Amino acid sequence: MFSFKDEGYASGNSSETSSPEVFFTKPHLKFLNRQLQILEPQEILKWSITTLPGLYQTTAFGLTGLVISDMLSKIKMQRSQQVNLIFLDTLYHFQETLDLVEKVRERYPFKNINIFKPADVSTTAEFEKKYGERLWDKDENQYDFIVKVEPSQRAYRELNANAVLTGRRRSQGAKRGDLDIIEIDDAGLIKVNPLANWSFDQVRDYVRSNNIPYNTLLDRGYKSVGDWHSTQPITEGEEERSGRWKGQAKTECGIHNPKSKYAQYLRKMELQDQEELRQAALLKMNIVESEA
What we know:
Elements: E1 2-5, E2 8-11, E3 23-24, H1 26-37, H2 41-51, E4 55-58, H3 63-74, E5 85-88, H4 95-107, E6 113-116, H5 124-131, H6 135-138, H7 140-159, E7 163-165, E8 182-184, E9 190-192, H8 200-209, H9 258-291
Helix pairs in contact: 3-8, 7-9
């Protein structure tokens, strides 16, 4: 992982078998973004492959992620074939998304798709038995933490991922409008957004011209696909991600700011534990007083 230090950004993984340390000062990171900003996505990918150890691609198999996978498959560098995928199976994906995973396996058999699910459950039934039905309505922060934030952190830890390629673009709107090509998040993970400059039309045209399999929901008005319970088709003129959490102020699930979401969740659990201990102490006191 990358962690923030007063003098800049540096790898924080101290394991003897971990990847070599990579160091960025703040001015260096700013300089890199200026240089990468003017490059084509394929050149950004080549830079990432040759510069960043422990590199993976995170994807929910949206159009941009599919384009990145295809571009990587065509780069004539040995390590480009070793940039494997991380997919978070929330257990609430559309069937069309799960079908696409298998199509991607067939199209790029040399790529390993690392699938991570919520901890200690493997099916929707098991999830709802443990957490109840419609957790996303009852406590969306807890839901996001359980299905996205914790699995992503576990993935990075178990795979020794120091850096990831993402499919985020400025044209998707909302908080992504001022996206840099390369950034380091609150948890210290470096993220590269190779298609940050591209529009939806550019991405769609690349998919069509290269005959890349894609999510069939896109043909039904979906431009950004997440969980079935929080994704809707959009109408002409709406922002690309406006179908996600429609009618809410929310635009991200927490995975792109995991440290703060993680801290919020842990703080909530800590307060709950403290309240339970306080209630237990009061109950014990009442029992003692009544017996006296």
